[in-house]
Amino acid sequence: MNKFQDFNLKQFLVENLKSQGIDKPTPIQDMTIPIIMEGSDVLAEAQTGTGKTLAFLLPIFQNLDSESPHVQALIVTPTRELAIQITSEAKKLAANTDITILPVFGGQDINAQLKKLNGKVDIVVATPGRLLDHIRRETVDISHLSTLVLDEADQMLYIGFRNEVEMILKSTNKDKQTLCFSATLDSKVKKLAYKFMKDPLEMRAPSQNVTLDTIEQRIVRVSDRWKQEALFAELDSTNPFLAIIFCRTKRRVDKLEEAMSQKKYLCNKLHGGMTQSARQKVMKSFREARIQYLVATDVAARGLDISGVSHIYNFDVPEESETYIHRIGRTGRMGDDGVAITFVAPKDEAMVSEIEKKIGLKIPSSEYSRSTKDKK
User: Fold this and answer.
1) For 280-335, what is each residue's pLDDT tens digit?
2) What's the topology of domain 209-375?
3) Fewest 10 Å CB contacts: which of 69, 100, 228, 352?
4) Which are the contacts of 214, defined by CB distance < 8 A and separation ≥ 6?
């Protein structure tokens, strides 16, 4: 299959895809859409950037019943940013129709959400915490679903949403179709999936090594003491168009962003400790290139599609090799070239070995040496 028409999609879907310049499915879409449209439960391994959002949205839209008064599809996702992004994609597909999509996440006015939930809502895109709040208030009814999607399932479990996800699943009807998309199908994801899914078909998107081939990866070996100085030296020498700088914790993000601001870098921060309105404002500024550097925790590494990111800087080495792939996957997108630079302290060497084993590549490295002027 090389065209969306081959899936026998409704005409409005084909036209709305075409208006976005999309006419050819990605491998994960080609693989999963026909199976999902047949009604099977699917457990799919797909990394960020493979087109998985359309892989579940298109069958959802295809199967919507315009006469139903109930919420027909529920998409549960770990972060507010990803919920916003999925909602945006869904609204593009719903253009020129009366299909209604409602994002439900914390940081929004709950009364406004209540008002909208009182009307007809076809698709709900939600984060676990706020959705559970509505379930407890009995302000949302998810007992008549056609489709339930768990997106970024491994990330939801990783950040501690297992209990919430299970409570949500128990609030849904048993005859629904369940789709689980995850960057990794590890034992935790499978245990959750098989507890609530009906004989799911396991599917894996083709390897993303091709995407990594467009990214120049480098390591800078430096002690923790001089890491900030080494980062600033890199920023000054490369002056990237748009860059994301990843730190391990919110505190590290705050500290680095403050130091960069003092040095007059055009930067801002993004992490889970900020209000939703603040996070949205930062993302808007970054997407519009009004800031050059986004200093972030891994909340920004999953699912966010930001065009034009030329450089990724791993100020802190991630704690898992998969996270490294997600981070650097923010650049080198859609065939563009990208650069990923990782600052490695002696304590990080074991993780670097794991990363190199995972990607099947020995990453070129250099030592950061302080200039004579700086040593004085």
Assistant:
1) 788 889 988 999 999 999 865 565 667 789 999 999 999 888 788 888 888 876 65
2) Rossmann fold (3.40.50)
3) 69
4) 332, 335, 336, 337, 338
4-204 shares its CATH topology with 209-375: yes
Question: Is the pTM for the entire model greater than 0.85?
Answer: no
- The answer to whether residues 48 and 183 touch, using CB atoms and an 8 Å cutoff, is yes
Q: Are 219 and 366 in contact (CB under 8 A)?
A: yes
- pLDDT tens digits, one per residue of 259-288: 999 999 999 999 878 876 788 788 889 988
Q: What residue segments make up the domains of the chain, in order of their start?
A: 4-204, 209-375
Domain 4-204 has CATH 3.40.50.300: yes
Q: Which tokens belong to 200?
A: 């799911």
Burial label, 229 (beta-carbon count in 10 A; 0-12, 13-18, 19+): middle
The length of the chain, given as a count of residues: 376
